[in-house]
Amino acid sequence: MPSGPTIILMLKSAVVAVTVLLLLSLWALKRGNVRLHGRLNHLFFVLTMTTVLGFEGLIKFGVPVTTHFQEDDYSALRFHLAFVIPLLPVMVLMLMTGRWRKRAFHVLLANVFVVLWAGMFVTGVFFLPH
Ligand code: HEM
After folding, report:
1. How confident is the model at residue 1 (pLDDT cuts 50, 70, 90)?
2. Burial class (CB in 10 A: 0-12, 13-18, 19+), 89
3. Ligand 1: which of 34, 46, 101, 112 to mutate, judged by most atoms within 8 Å of the beta carbon?
4. Mutation test of ligand 1: which of 18, 23, 88, 94 has the most ligand atoms closer than 8 Å to its C-beta?
5. CA angle 104-110-114, nearest 5°?
6. 17-to-22, 24, 94, 112 alpha-carbon distances in Å
7. Which pLDDT tens digit goes with each residue over 17-47?
8. Atom of ligand 1 nearest to the CA of 114
9. What is the CA 87 to chain-centroid distance, rounded?
10. Ligand 1 neighbours (beta carbon < 6 A)
11. If you write DSSP's letter for every residue of 58-124 in order, what string do you get?
12. Each residue of 77-121: pLDDT tens digit?
């Protein structure tokens, strides 16, 4: 089993990878390719959920992911989770409203989603130690 720092580094890499996918989906949207935007975001959704549930599973099975954390790092983790926890239901709603073509609600929610995603990204990639 990889060490805690390695697992955190793998999670950071996964976050960067899915963010690239999200940015590609927005580029597709800008070019008017809504279908590609939808397809990329289906992939984005599955990969993000797999990462979050995989991490949750590791903790549940007692894998020591945060044993190298200092006191301050736990505050950083709580700050990070404050973005992650609301992000998950918002992401589910983004997928549903996109699929159901509820355009106005989808775009409104996109503002909340982008703020939460940016917060999750910065606090996760830059504040958590690996
Ligand atoms: C972050 C900023 C985002 C913006 C500004 C945005 C915007 C849009 C817009 C304008 C449409 C076209 C809606 C229509 O014409 O009815 C759309 C479609 C869609 N979006 Fe998003 N979206 C974003 C993120 C997401 C995310 C995160 C997901 C999924 C997790 C998602 C999933 C979809 C799906 C599935 C469609 C339908 C595609 C199709 O009809 O083939 N979007 N989005």
Report:
1. confident
2. exposed
3. 34
4. 94
5. 165
6. 9, 11, 19, 21
7. 999 999 999 999 999 999 999 999 999 999 9
8. 1
9. 8
10. 26, 29, 34-35, 37-38, 41, 44-45, 91, 94-95, 98-99, 101, 103, 106-107, 110, 113-114
11. HHHTT--SSTT--HHHHHHHHHHHHHHHHHHHHHHHHHHHHHTT-HHHHHHHHHHHHHHHHHHHHII
12. 999 999 999 999 999 999 999 999 999 999 999 999 999 999 999
Q: Are 73 and 124 in contact (CB under 8 A)?
A: no
Boundaries of every domain in the chain: 4-127
Q: What's the gap in Å between 118 CA and the centre of ligand 1?
A: 18
End-to-end CA distance of the chain: 16
Structure tokens at 78: 């709580």
Q: Which residues contact 84 (CB under 8 A, 6 or more apart)?
A: 52, 120, 124
| 35, amino acid identity | R
